[in-house]
Amino acid sequence: MDKIKNRINELIELINKACYEYYVLDNPTMTDQEYDDIYRELLSLEEKYPELVREDSPTHRVGGEAIDKFNKVTHKTPMLSFDDIFNDEEIESFDERIKKTISKPRYTLEPKMDGLSGSLIYEKGILVRAATRGDGVTGEDITINVKTIKSVPLRLTKDIDIEVRGEIYMSKSSFEKANKERRETGEKEFANPRNAAAGSVRQLDSKITAKRNLDFMAYFIPNPEDYGIKTQEESIKFMKELGFVTNIKLNGIANNSRDIISYVNDLNSKRESLPFAIDGVVIKVDSLEDEKILGFTARVPRWGIAYKFPAMEVLTTLNEIKFTVGRTGKITPNAIFNPVHVDGSLVSKATLHNEDYCIGKDVRVGDIISIRKAGDVIPEVVEVKLDRRKDGSIPFKMIDTCPICGTKLIKKDAMHFCPNDLCGARKIEGLEHFVSRDVMYIDGFGERIIEDFYNEGFLTSIEDFYHLYKHKDELMTMEGFGEKSINNLLDAITNSKNNSLERLIFGLGIRHVGKKTAKILAMHFGTMDKFMNAEYDTLNNIPDVGDIIAKSIIDYFSNEANIKLINKLKELNVNMEYLGEKIDTSNEKVNGKTFVITGTLSNPRDVYKAKLESLGANVTESVTKKTDYVLVGENPGSKYDKAKELGIKIISEEDYEELVM
Ligand code: IVH
Fold first, then answer.
1. Which residue from 408, 613, 631, 654 has the highest number of Cβ atoms inside 10 Å of its Cβ?
2. Mean residue pLDDT across the chain
3. Count of structural domains, the chain
4. Of 349, 384, 417, which residue sits at a domain end?
């Protein structure tokens, strides 16, 4: 047995060394064949002797059993982000602001990776937990998924306890590959590498994550002083020594805004040629001592900032203006143009919103237009190059009948609608909405699949999703499907029955009820029955709901067909209750009390606010007679004076800790 154990240890060492050389040093010393051989040997030993499988074995990288949901994780130190800035002037003012406190600052400059931040916790050098940022205070436990990322060391070169933060991202080549596969299977393509990374790391089935080929770039140690580190630059070196991939070669140093701007321009010119997507430069004060002096504002650290590159604009030719019908019947004109790469993704269409927008921009088929990605995600038409317009172009004209069912359109404000509830396009859109990520999250349904199932008559209403299993044999004969893919789809449908109520409310497609409102309603009413039977006044009085939404909900439930649909879903065991986090009201000293926070505390104010609110407190901005407690940090301002004047209880950070315990 000892001999086998030794061989397993030896194989793991060899594999880890090969990965380190490949990913961190960028200098492979083993051929793919050699790697495969030792990997397979390890795998077969582990299969034979499961009791000898090590926690940090590289074979965990293929993923494990699927899980039901991600557990919540509270970060030891809140995971913050920086404020964004967008131009040279703002870089100059940042530098000036820092120089008011630190006379000769030195800055580290790093590419701003375009993925999602992750926190990795190692104990005695072994990866024990990985989490998403979440709201900064609590994230989600994504350990099994992160273990599949080959550039994440499962074991460090030192047996230490440490937390390392960095960006989980998808390289441009993996992104292209993933989208190619999705095109082939008819699934909706990822909009950009960031969405692809975020979607892949939040898979309940880690085997899917493993296939997506994610990467990790380390950039931050929350408690560097524990390792004798004095600067951000040293942090990066230390992480590299531990076995992490860092951007050490691309990072820069600056002492003033001129040098920062020149680094920004230089990096921007290299941007296209980098193997991963970046969206700016992160500027950090290098000295950790200086960082401490600078501290935080209410939300963000003062010692750093994120400069975002201007959105890229690309020229192309407008080939067609195509009208689509949304699930509410809204008609949208869309620009269909020659495909172009914008910020790392290939785009070929952009919304033109409505008639007024098209007329305002004077878009015409055949025009040269410039495209950019608004907020880095949704492509938009920036302008028409009027000087390049060809003779004989025809001005835009809005249609007056539905392009799908031919019904005469009606106009409300700037928008046109198809009033026909039975319009096929509206139904398909509604079905696509129902399965989408933010709604019932039924993975595996691309646009094309919904359309095919609709055209074949398997899917005509939401309810039909839950009857699809009856048609399994027929579905299996459809092009692009096999037993496995149908089983996965049916499993995903069954799992969706357990979703919390807000997803179902959002999925019903009630006009004006978006994701946020659905959550407010689900939290307020707790059950579908209470929501369905709510009166106008009750709905109208809920904060953030109001008249328009209240009327729309009443309207929806006054339609007999909608009540029938919900009753059918109930019979099919679709969950009708809110399952989300409830406020913990057990701490009587905090629940229902009103707090004001002032002065510099050891964390940004939002951290205290989130905790207090989770315990049922109100956190407000100004001190009044109604305030119960004022939490006071260093250098408090007028709120402190006001609290003293009104005789309101003043508490320190320690008192606070005791209060919320
Ligand atoms: S440092 C206190 N370094 O951009 C903030 N962040 O606002 C510590 N990001 O949400 C983060 N590249 O997800 C840092 N080299 C880098 C980064 C980086 C990308 C992301 C991060 C954060 C946002 C910064």
1. 631
2. 91
3. 6
4. 417
Residues 616, 631: Cα–Cα separation, whole Å: 16
> 577 lies in a domain?
no
Residue range 277-290: mean pLDDT, rounded: 96
Which residues lie with the beta carbon below 6 Å from any ligand 1 atom?
Answer: 80-82, 110, 112-113, 117, 167, 219-220, 282, 301, 306
Judge whether 556 and 536 are in contact, CB under 8 Å: no
pLDDT at site 233: 97
Ligand 1, residues 132, 135, 282, 603: which to mutate, most atoms within 8 A of Cβ?
282
Does residue 289 share a domain with residue 327? no
The owner of tokens 């703002």 is 90
Residue 78 lies in a domain: yes
CATH of the domain at 456: 1.10.150.20
Q: What is the 3-state secondary structure (H, E, C) of 59-78?
A: HHHHCCCCCCCCCEEECCCC
The Cα 597–Cα 611 span in angstroms is 12
Identify the domain boundary among 461, 496, 531. 496
* 343 and 473 inside one domain: no
Residue 381 banded pLDDT, cuts 50, 70, 90: very high
Same domain, 616 and 506: no
- Residue 529 sits in the same domain as residue 653: no
**From ligand 1's centre to the CA of 497, what distance in Å?**
37
Would you state the pLDDT for residue 619? 86
Based on the fold, state whether residues 615 and 488 are members of the same structural domain.
no
Separation of alpha carbons 550 and 538, rounded Å: 9
For residue 406, being part of any structural domain is answered with yes
Of 233-237, 389-393, 594-598, the range with the highest mean pLDDT is 233-237
Task: Write down the pLDDT at residue 99.
Answer: 96
Judge whether 326 lies within some domain: yes
Classify burial at 625, counting beta carbons within 10 Å of its beta carbon; exposed 0-12, middle 13-18, buried 19 or more: exposed
What's the confidence (pLDDT) of residue 85? 94
Q: What is the DSSP code string of 313-328?
A: EEEEEEEEEEEEE-TT
Q: From ligand 1's centre to the CA of 166, what distance in Å? A: 7
Q: Domain limits at 473?
A: 424-496
Over residues 549-571, the pLDDT tens digits come to 999 999 999 999 999 999 999 99
Average pLDDT over residues 464-487: 86
Same domain for 280 and 265, yes or no, is yes
- 42 shares a domain with 175: no
Q: Rounded CA gap, 142 and 612, in Å?
A: 26
Residues belonging to the active site? 112
CA 258 / ligand 1 centre spacing (Å): 22
Q: Which ligand 1 atom sits closest to the C-alpha of 80? A: 2
Residue nearest to atom 3 of ligand 1 (CA): 219
Q: Which residue has the higher pLDDT, 586 or 378?
A: 586
pLDDT band, very low/low/confident/very high, at 610 (cuts 50, 70, 90): confident
| CA 654 to ligand 1 center in whole angstroms | 30
Note the pLDDT tens digit of each residue in 293-329: 999 887 889 999 999 998 778 899 999 999 999 888 9
